[in-house]
Amino acid sequence: MNDFRKQAMRLESIGGQYDFWLVAAAGALAAIGVVMVASASIAMASTPYYYLSRHVVFLALGVGLAITAMRMELKSIEKYNQLLLLGCFALLVVVFVPGLGSTVNGARRWINLGFTRFQTVEAVKVLYIVWLASYLVRFRDEVNATWGALIKAIGVVLVLIALLLLQPDFGSSTLLLGITAGMLILGGANLPRMTMPVLALLPALVALVVFEPYRMRRVTSFLDPWKDQLGSGYQLSNALMAIGRGEWTGVGLGSSVQKLNYLPEAHTDFIFSVIGEELGFLGVCAIIGLYALLVGRALYVGYRCIGRNRHFAGYIAFGIALWIGMQAFVSIGVNLGLLPTKGLTLPLISSGGSSVLMTCAAMGLLLRVSYELSRAEKHIALTRGETVVVADPKAPASKPARAAEAEAPQPAPARAAVRGNARPQRIEPTFERIG
Fold first, then answer.
1. Other Cβ atoms closer than 10 A to 73
2. Rounded to the nearest 5°, which phi and psi values hold at 188?
3. CB–CB of 211/196 below 8 Å?
4. Which of 56, 87, 197, 349 is the most buried (most CB within 10 A)?
């Protein structure tokens, strides 16, 4: 019986559950994205459903990446933290390699894969969050107490930002900077010490806007889009007209007028305006509510991981929550005229192969965090003899661990199975509400 108890106590032998609310929120946003991409892009190509077909293909590939991430042990990922950081630099440099890099509208942000283009910064977001989570685990005390560890993390992101600005990609640069600041604060960095680098970087960010004519035009058009409605304010003025036409309940799914070659990038950067026009204020509130649920639940899962001393998992959850929350906030703010145009897509909804693939991969990683949290909590409950869901499918789910032990087979056959070549039965995870 003691051998059976030891075997049941092994963390790997305990089944966990993926967080139901994370799955529900991400799935709902992805489903809405399919519908809205179909509606917003129907008049943009010679084939009515070209962009929809492309979006569905990338979404299916993204689900495959998510499933792969959901089945990877986080401790195995953590071992390759330095390679992940090197991967970030390599992905941002490879776009400048002749023959591999691809230029679109004057920006060199993509690599040519033959059948499609891939925006490398989308992969960098995921890899960088995982690396920074590992860094905060290794230097948690130093980040809070010393300048060196804090400056090192900021120095890494500044090099990444410099490479992004060479492409140029100001929107992703500010997003990476925001993710870094948020993760450092949640990782225990001293707030007064954090303010000094932020204040030092503000003049540089302002200079990047003031001395770059096209960025300055974005700011001036954001302040008064109607002043040059057919010029620099064209995108924002049409986006605001689409939002205004939606009123409370919208003009109806598929009935948007602004998407008919009036609103640029209606299926990517400005898809939220089409949602506002077709689904109205109620539809907009539903979208914002789903993002609030996804981000809030991710932060909650991360908080519980930190409480269980699973800091690496917790920081990954924090980083993904900050990424999705900030990018959704910026994209929605741009469509509502609250922020200057940044060129960021609406996560899980906008069309865009690179964004869809890597956002799905991040969702899979987040679900893996929730799975390992559930598994760890069950492990703790087993060690205390509390009632848990037993991994053995033949054992009733509601019985206590001690009751399961009483009904277990004799120790001798169990030891023989371990010594032989028999492989342990695979434990398939299930979905349930955590907390």
1. 11
2. 105, 10
3. no
4. 349
Instruction: Show the tokens assigned to 74.
Output: 């986080």
Nearest 10 degrees: CA dihedral of 77, 81, 87, 93?
160
Quote the tokens at residue 310: 């699973």
Q: How far apart are CA 52 and CA 39, in angstroms?
A: 9
CA dist 370 and 199 (Å) reads: 36
| Cα(276)–Cα(241) distance, integer angstroms | 10
Tens digit of pLDDT for each residue in 332-388? 999 998 888 777 889 999 988 899 999 999 999 999 999 999 988 887 877 776 655
State residue 47's pLDDT score. Answer: 76
Largest CA distance in the chain: 84
Per-residue pLDDT tens digits for 116-128? 888 999 999 999 9
Orientation angle between helical segments 271-307 and 353-383, nearest 10 degrees: 30
Mean pLDDT for 46-63 is 89
Q: Find all residues with CB under 8 Å of 104, minimum gap 6, and list them.
A: 110, 117
Whole-structure pTM value: 0.83
Q: Which residue has the tokens 């277990």?
A: 408
pLDDT band at 13 (very low <50, low <70, confident <90, very high): low
Q: How much of the chain exceeds pLDDT 70, in percent?
A: 83
CA angle (269 as vertex; 266, 274 as ends), nearest 5:
40
Strands laid side by side in the 107-112 sheet: 101-104, 107-112, 117-119
Q: Would you state the structure tokens that stand for residue 427, as one six-digit string?
A: 């434990």
